[in-house]
Design a protein that fits this description.
It is found in: Cytoplasm. The chain is of the alpha/beta class. It folds into 2 domains: 96 residues, K Homology domain, type 1 (Ribosomal Protein S8, Chain: A, domain 1, 2-Layer Sandwich), CATH 3.30.1370; 102 residues, P-loop containing nucleotide triphosphate hydrolases (Rossmann fold), CATH 3.40.50.300. It contains 10 helices and 8 strands. Strands 1-3-2 form a 3-stranded antiparallel β-sheet, with helices on one face. Strands 7-6-8 form a 3-stranded parallel β-sheet. The chain has a two-stranded antiparallel sheet with strand order 4-5. The chain starts with a strand and ends with a strand.
């Protein structure tokens, strides 16, 4: 079957550098992912390939341009993610996904939901006081919860973040571990610490912990607590 061709015109020339990528890296990625040929001249883009693939790539370019117009700038990592989403589902609404980005800190920038399930999880946290999330390991439950907590703390929606996890014994009593209560439970909170340190500078995390803005509590110590204006994460 003879391949089709279609020419697109980008309305905003300022979008070209981030959309095309350094040395047209993003265009090459799109060509490989959708098995099409892309040639460009200034703001003109010519697509050559199967009609279905051309339609998907056209939709991708148009949606990325609309994101820019809506003041939702996309970086290289975001474009790679958008390409993957469109390859998995050509009908994906990128604006719906990217509008739920979580602004965490200058270090990390934004945390973007990696699909409809994570998007729904973020929306649930924004709309509800209590959210229960169940799923396999590695699906972003803890990471997204920490991101939402950090965003809320930095925007002063909450006065503190309370990290709670059961102190599951593994052959030795919690009381025999060295240090204060924070030191004793630290080994059980590493997934939460990993997420915090990925989003914020180490010294900022320590400063917030020293000020009590980030608190570490074993589940057994939560009974009877009064926790106003707090974002509480009970992990497993």
């Amino acid at each position: 079957m003879k391949p089709d061709t279609k020419e697109l015109v980008l309305e905003n020339n300022a979008l070209i550098p981030e959309l095309f990528g350094s040395q047209d890296f993003n265009l090459k990625l799109i060509e490989k992912k959708f098995n099409i040929r892309i040639t460009t001249r200034e703001n003109h883009i010519r697509l050559k390939g199967n009609p279905e693939d051309i339609e998907t790539v056209e939709n991708l370019f148009m949606q990325l341009e609309k994101l820019h117009e809506a003041n939702l700038p996309v970086e290289n990592g975001d474009i790679k993610f958008a390409i993957r989403l469109m390859a998995e589902d050509p009908h994906t609404d990128l604006k719906t996904i990217f509008s739920e980005r979580i602004a965490v800190s200058p270090k990390k920038g934004y945390v973007t939901p990696k699909g409809p399930a994570q998007h729904q999880f973020i929306q649930s946290i924004r709309k509800n006081d209590i959210v229960l999330s169940i799923g396999p390991a590695g699906t972003g439950k803890t990471y997204l919860a920490v991101a939402m907590a950090v965003e809320g703390l930095l925007k002063k929606r909450y006065r503190r973040i309370v990290l709670v996890r059961p102190a599951v014994e593994a052959g030795e009593k919690l009381g025999y571990l060295p240090g204060d209560i924070a030191d004793k439970i630290n080994p059980y909170l590493m997934p939460l610490y990993d997420a915090l340190n990925d989003m914020m500078e180490d010294n900022h995390v320590r400063h917030l912990m020293d000020d009590g803005a980030i608190e570490i509590v074993p589940l057994a110590y939560m009974r009877g607590r009064t926790l106003s204006d707090s974002f509480i994460i009970l992990d497993e």
